[in-house]
Amino acid sequence: MQSGDTWSIEEIITLPRQSKSEIKKETEMFKENFSLILDNSRLIMNTPRYYYSYLESFIVGLVYLGGHKASIGSLLQLWEKGIFMDECRHCGGSLYLFSGKGSPLSGSNSCAGICNECREISHKNLPDVKQIMNAYKHVKDSINARLILRTKGQTFSFKSGLVGSPVPDRIIRQGISPATMTELINEIRMLER
Ligand SMILES: [Zn+2]
């Protein structure tokens, strides 16, 4: 968005980058506690700090449009409506998809999800890309971004050089600092006690 010399910038809020072993550890924790997460879906969806939590592997993307991190809250909202789900190939249970990428043109795709019965993570190709497109739209609409207003305070000309003084960015919307998945699970466990 731009009007005159002022424009707004969306800065996506992310969790600190993790090492491979940290990612592995947190994924294991997520697998072990997936039922706990489903049981507490209301709490997670209604608590912004939890809503915007995610694992590195939670990504939904479409060819040409790019990919977005999918928050656990946005995934729970999809699953609640039966969207972005499939069948586990190990046990036939419900597979809750958390990542997917596909091409709307060719329909080729690949997804990954977790089964609530056997808790295995498995990869799948869906018969069509529609579920991924629906998930993409929802995930994109629920991005956690800081909104910044930037004003052009300085101009440059060869005649007079740099004119005016810089105007500091103004934060219009702060965005949410999300809990890590480990924090989310630990805190919910404490509440359940
Ligand atoms: Zn299964």
List the helices and strands and how they pair.
Blueprint: E1 2-3, E2 6-12, H1 20-32, H2 34-39, H3 41-46, H4 48-51, E3 59-62, E4 66-69, H5 72-80, E5 85-87, E6 94-102, E7 109-115, E8 121-124, H6 130-141, E9 145-151, E10 155-157, E11 161-163, E12 170-173, H7 181-192
Parallel strand pairs: 3-6
Antiparallel strand pairs: 1-2, 2-9, 3-4, 5-6, 6-7, 7-8, 9-12, 10-11
The structure holds zinc ion.
Description:
With 193 residues, this protein is α+β, with helices and mostly antiparallel strands. It has one domain. The protein is built from seven helices and twelve strands. The N and C termini lie far apart (48 Å). The model has no long low-confidence stretch (mean pLDDT 93). The chain binds zinc ion. The site of zinc ion has 8 residues, from loops.
Reported for the largest beta sheet, the result is: 6 strands, mixed
- Looking at the structure, what is the overall shape? globular
The share of residues in extended strands comes to: 25-35%
Identify every distinct bound molecule in the structure, by name, code or SMILES: zinc ion
**How many structural units, i.e. domains?**
1
Number of strands: 12
What are the defining features of this structure?
single chain, 193 residues, alpha+beta, 4-stranded antiparallel β-sheet, 7 helices, binds zinc ion
Describe the structure in brief.
This protein is an alpha+beta fold and 193 residues long.
